[in-house]
């Protein structure tokens, strides 16, 4: 098996293009806290499911191609959804010291997230394996309500389908409601309303041609706390998807963690301290290390001390933006125009665990690459294909110490200093590539999940803060 590069990315973000398939969860106890092993889409444990894109690719180059294809699809959606700017979402505090932790797993392919969680919805509760997505707000799953014959083949095999009519707590949202006509318009609600009590329908169209049809409702979710207790989260808005065409053939659904009032992130946050966090292990780490997603405070003694920077909420919903002031290379600030960092005027920076590589708008990309020109001149430049990174080189004689140190500076003084291996990537045998790609200006720079690796990330929605710190992501 090819072992040189195992990209581990959280996908807290879809981009309106999806696909998944079969998964496994391994749980273990640590100091009374249940933690769950994350299985990446490229793990050999998932390589025995025919007809899927899970399991190890044929080689390292194909592994990188898969991730870049996903990035390209995602960027199209980010570009479409950044405008028009949305009104602010108000957060009200609900004190609760409990903590909920969800299992995360590897996902698949074009434009989707890289990981899944186990999620229970309905009364009685039904378990689903959901993509986690910080780039969308709606939580939806395969479901039947009006449709008598939908998913007949899956139902006959007792596969995961929500039968909304048998859930005692499911309530459809009427098409005549203000929620349907106004609030859910950004989630592709339809104006068609044959009668006032008819369900509010939606028609999602994804960048790869996939579409998902269904209607909106509210139901009760069940989450397990780290002490083993189960807690009900009532009135979670969900999408009951009865027709799915395209790349979603084997996924159960999506958990929306974007910043909008009807997302699961805000709903769960009300019960668990208005925080969620994740930590991504180094993509070259041994497979026994753990990634996790947590709602609430992580009060583990091994949790690192975090730096905090402003989390810009309500400007580019559902995305999470930050206030960057510049980038330095080996201690020297690059000459980048300040308006490039302004999220309110068409620029800015988004923290997105759904993108793999870090996407730099052209004015930033050109200056970063220029700063790498001297150290890279020691290595033979390699030609790139249409689905590869922009800058690659022969790694004969390569040492990390030869590469400059990159630092992202935030306006309030915080600094992100990623390890070199998070921006100089092992792409193929004898080949390394810079982990940056160029995107058009105007537009937003996106800090991808490879650059986020080996860090703890805490999204504090109440206080509009993003915390981060270097971490091995191992809490035992």
UniProtKB/TrEMBL annotation:
<feature type="domain" description="Peptidase A1">
    <location>
        <begin position="115"/>
        <end position="469"/>
    </location>
</feature>
<dbReference type="InterPro" id="IPR033121">
    <property type="entry name" value="PEPTIDASE_A1"/>
</dbReference>
<dbReference type="InterPro" id="IPR001969">
    <property type="entry name" value="Aspartic_peptidase_AS"/>
</dbReference>
<dbReference type="InterPro" id="IPR032861">
    <property type="entry name" value="TAXi_N"/>
</dbReference>
<dbReference type="InterPro" id="IPR032799">
    <property type="entry name" value="TAXi_C"/>
</dbReference>
<dbReference type="InterPro" id="IPR051708">
    <property type="entry name" value="Plant_Aspart_Prot_A1"/>
</dbReference>
<keyword id="KW-0325">Glycoprotein</keyword>
<protein>
    <submittedName>
        <fullName>Aspartic proteinase A1 isoform 1</fullName>
    </submittedName>
</protein>
<keyword id="KW-0378">Hydrolase</keyword>
<keyword id="KW-0645">Protease</keyword>
<dbReference type="GO" id="GO:0004190">
    <property type="term" value="F:aspartic-type endopeptidase activity"/>
</dbReference>
<dbReference type="Pfam" id="PF14541">
    <property type="entry name" value="TAXi_C"/>
</dbReference>
<feature type="active site">
    <location>
        <position position="352"/>
    </location>
</feature>
<dbReference type="InterPro" id="IPR001461">
    <property type="entry name" value="Aspartic_peptidase_A1"/>
</dbReference>
<dbReference type="Pfam" id="PF14543">
    <property type="entry name" value="TAXi_N"/>
</dbReference>
<dbReference type="InterPro" id="IPR034161">
    <property type="entry name" value="Pepsin-like_plant"/>
</dbReference>
<keyword id="KW-0064">Aspartyl protease</keyword>
<keyword id="KW-0732">Signal</keyword>
<dbReference type="GO" id="GO:0006508">
    <property type="term" value="P:proteolysis"/>
</dbReference>
<feature type="active site">
    <location>
        <position position="133"/>
    </location>
</feature>
<comment type="similarity">
    <text>Belongs to the peptidase A1 family.</text>
</comment>
<feature type="signal peptide">
    <location>
        <begin position="1"/>
        <end position="22"/>
    </location>
</feature>
<dbReference type="InterPro" id="IPR021109">
    <property type="entry name" value="Peptidase_aspartic_dom_sf"/>
</dbReference>
